[in-house]
Amino acid sequence: MMVHGTVPKGSGLSSSSALVCASALASMVSHGLHFSKTEMAEICQKSERYVGTMGGGMDQAISFLGQSGSASWISFDPVCVTPVSLPERTVFFIANSLVESSKYETADTCFNKRVIECRLAAKILAKKLHVTQNVQRLGDVQKCSGLNLETMKQKVLEVLKESYYTREDIAHELGIQVSELQSVDLIGPKLTSTEFYLRLRAYHVFHESWLVQEFIKVKTPEEMGKLMSASHDTCQKNFDCSCPELDELVSVCMEAGALGSRLTGAGWGGCTVSLVPESKKDEFYEHVKENYYKKRGVVDTVISTSFFATVPGP
Questions:
Q1: Where are the alpha helices (DSSP H) in 160-279?
Q2: What does the pLDDT average to over 278-282?
Q3: Is 140 a catalytic site residue?
Q4: How far apart are CA 87 and CA 170, in angstroms?
Q5: Which residue of the set 59, 140, 169, 240 is catalytic?
Q6: Which of the listed residues 133, 174, 197, 212 has the most CB atoms within 10 Å of its CB?
Q7: 72 in Cβ contact with 63 (< 8 Å)
């Protein structure tokens, strides 16, 4: 099998998922099999976890189920993709910070650790809210408790402590021995971290979910832009998945006339996505080019593949 692609690796643009999805499609066709788009998304979601990352399924779902000209609201269990209208006379710009982020290589300190922190927060939050079901995700806690997102955010602030949790703290909250945290449905045997910021991670998840719901409801580009910027703010402050270069790039994009800008992908490097009025796209491009890329000595051939306007596609 020959593999060729133009998606830069470690850029937050789903290069690994693109490889998995393309390989799965090629394998399906070559073996004379047939699966629905939803089935393929679910298969690829599970397949990618074999490399050691505890990824979700958004990349695979949008690869198979995205619709041209629309954003998509993706939910799971089961996978469901709902088209979301985007404002006219605007464009999305992708800008690569040129900081490469490997989900696999940093899994135990960044990507996988966030998954585990959210799982632990869900377990403790469920116990505090008297949820008796065995939950694995923060969304499960909300579903079982019947509370809305605003109330869940408030509950997080009320029942989870502001400082980090140690392994001893977590074991005490759950009423188990520290050694039991090695279970794969808690921390697992591989992660060596001793500090877990459960309140920040849980608040981010519920707040980000609220921002998504607001994005679906708003009608103007300006409102959408504010929500995008708010999303970056919580990624930076609560989920701690940004980096100095991404923060600088977001600031430069906003100075250049973006209505909103945020990191995209897992974070810790990679790209930003910015919503820009079509009438300002040339001015925006030149400002970001000069004030982010040129000041770093990046040559035009690299800039052309790192910074570009795009539209939603299939």
A1: 167-174, 198-217, 221-237, 244-255
A2: 96
A3: no
A4: 45
A5: 59
A6: 197
A7: no
